[in-house]
Amino acid sequence: MGSPAEEDYASFEERVGRTVYFDNLSPQVTESVLRTALDQYATVKNVKFIPNYTEPRNSPQCALVELDSLKKVKEIILVTAQHPFMMTGMPRPVRACPAEVEMFDDHPVKPGRKISCCWLDPRDPDFQIAKELKHITRRHASEAAFIHKHQMEEEKNLSDQQSLILKGNYKKFKMINSIMADGTARRLARRYHLRVADD
Amino acid sequence: MGEVEEETIEFNWGKKRGVGGKKKDVQFYESFTYDGVEYILFDSVYLYKEGEPEPYIGVGLANVNPLEALAGKCNVICISKDHRNPQPLDDEVQMADFVFYRTFDVAHRTISDKIDDTIAGIHVKFIFNKIDPQKPAGVLKPGFDEKGVSGNDTAIKKVVPLSGQKDRDCVTVKSDGKYVDSLVKESVDSKPSLVKQKCSVGGKLASSVDGQETTKSNGRLEKTIPQSKVKENAESKDSVIKRKSLSGQFASRKDVGFGETDKSGDRQQSISDEKAILRSKVDSNLGECEGRKVFVREVEVEQEVQSSHENCRLEEKPSKKAKMDDSCKVSYGETNSMHKCVSDGGESKTSSQIEVATNNKSKLKLAMEPYRKEEVPSKKMKLDENPSKPSNGKLRKESSLDSPNVDIKVDSRIMEVTRRPDADKSRWFRGIPWEERMKSAHDQGTLVLLQNLDPALTSAEVEDIVWHGFKENCTAKMVQRTAFSSPYYGQAYVIFKTREAAEMAVRKLDQGCLLLSNGRPLVASIGNPCFPEKKPTFYGHLVVDQHRVQSQRDMKDAVSTSHCSQPNNIEYDMAMEWCLLQERADCSWKMLYRRQGEEVKKLKAKLKSK
């Protein structure tokens, strides 16, 4: 039913429903990584990365992954919500959400939508309001950019902090390992008359 | 783009040339029609090749190519001074997509200024410019010649185009009347030439041209006056209709000319085209002058003439011009202030002047004759099957330079955004990766970032909006939404054809307000995108750089595969910290966007029209 445009749009919407949006992806994640990561849950039909030109540099990759059914989309979103799901690295997990129409590069025109535009006359009372709206648009964009920047900083901080913790842990384990290996632990145990269980 | 385009593209063979081949089983054709465009043997075309960022250009192409490679016609002009080459005119060169004057010998790998008689077995006359009486050049030439004859005083010359500009009201009608089938483009093309004829005629007979004008329409002009009054407050649409009715005999033709397309768009284009040509002409007169300056001078001259008693017609013109402004202010900006002041007080004057003008009948005959003569080439122009669109765009852009203070007067009619006329052409070049095109556009300063778009718009719709708002062709790409994009604001990168066009759009949107549906004034800035780095950094993936002694097995597995983390691991704790950070970020985005949404809503509620 409906015109070809409507049918087009309906089939597109169906495709949107079958698509998962992933973000917080490492730049090393490629299409094949995504495919292998997800084939334990569903058949991946199509993978498209969303290019990023506006956000601050180095923001994580985002991708749209088209699966074979809506049910699988829900499953994957549930899995990633319940367990931290990691791709090509640790410990930052990826995030999955349902895809939205505007995320698609090639989304068709919604049937029946009419666009109009007009140049406002400066004497029009709306002109001033439109000017304010323009101003607010710019302000909102810079607010969003600021939050973005702030978020990146927080990510960096967390990353640095975790890196320190990891290094500390690593050092600790290495030390334990080495004193066990070169007999220091046993010598000390003897010195202090402790019993070290030897396994 | 992602979808496979299944539409079949129209293809028809054209003129048959003969039969050949060993068994006479091959048919040769001289021309064919593909996707609505007629291609003739030795036409210059764009050839698109898979995987190549730029299309090839073939001049006098005769080798075998798949039909799909054909991307469109291309206007190539040879500027070689070779005597065998029909020399192109300045306007022709200006309108060309590409020019050449040398050859490259693929066998010897040498560049040569000499052009042999045959190249790759093709006679050189097919490679030089075609001697084509249908080409606009043929029309422009007489204009120049005429000017040479009559031209003695540059000042007058400059004035006259302007008067012609206004006179075009009638001229246009006239020319349209003659046309059997006036494609918009073609009629647009013809206008400048007509104006030029005017000017050449007028070089000597400035006042008599005016006389001619008035008398030709005798009663018509008298009617024009009340009409122009009406027009000042009426919609331009009305004005067109009115003019139609008053131009009587030509009315039906005009219907064809203007009826099918956006009226104001058409006229605006015609005016700016014309202006560009006028300007280029003035340029050629004065040598290397800056366009703006020249234009200002024109205006000055016009004012002088206005004050002079002799030219009554020029006085009347402003009121008429002002009327035209209703439909085409955008390109007219610079002269506006002047029009205004004249048209305010000018009405009463003009009606009396007309009487004077109509008394000029004695001079009329003189003027009439050259005018007639000139009509012939303009008719030919209409036959020109190949109105080169890109060049048209170029001209338009130049004209836009002339109007820095566009928003003095604004055409505040609501335009419904429909598909722009040649939207389908651009789709041929979609094969070039967007990122590369954006990069080069960024380097050339033709990239603009549009903000405050409806996020639901498609890239094609943005292109249409730009077309309706600025009469500029462009390529646009909506910025795809992500999980942290604003739900209210859509953004798009737009690549204009020239830097001037991009700057003009930004300036216009800065000074004026282009209000889109649902109360969104468009915001633009010169685009400054960030491109992905070669070695992007990513926060959150940690690697122990020395050999992994501890939990060696875990680490290896984790890096090479993807997995769900289990809660018995240090990585799980760390992952939880990331989840927490993500939640916090989500919250702050949500709060920010909610507040922004409220602010916008409050402001939008104040808008009268929505």
Automatic annotation (TrEMBL), chain A:
PROSITE patterns named in the record: RRM
Listed Pfam families: RRM_1 (PF00076)
Keywords: RNA-binding
A GO term for molecular function: RNA binding
Entry-linked InterPro entries: Epigenetic_reg_gene_expr, Nucleotide-bd_a/b_plait_sf, RBD_domain_sf, RRM_dom
UniProt keyword Manganese present: no
The protein's name in its UniProt record: RNA-binding family protein isoform 1
Organism per entry: Quillaja saponaria (Soap bark tree)
Source taxonomy: Eukaryota, Viridiplantae, Streptophyta, Embryophyta, Tracheophyta
UniProtKB/TrEMBL annotation, chain B:
Extent of Polar residues compositional bias: 209-218, 348-361
InterPro entries in the cross-refs: BAH_sf, Nucleotide-bd_a/b_plait_sf, RBD_domain_sf, RRM_dom
Keywords: RNA-binding
Domain RRM, residue spans: 446-529
Chain spans, region Disordered: 206-246, 253-272, 336-403
Start-end of Basic and acidic residues biased regions: 219-241, 370-387
Superkingdom of origin organism: Eukaryota
Annotated GO MF terms: RNA binding
PANTHER family: PROTEIN ANTI-SILENCING 1 (PTHR47073:SF2)
The protein's name: Bromo-adjacent-like (BAH) domain protein
Origin species: Quillaja saponaria (Soap bark tree)
Upper classification of the organism: Eukaryota, Viridiplantae, Streptophyta, Embryophyta, Tracheophyta
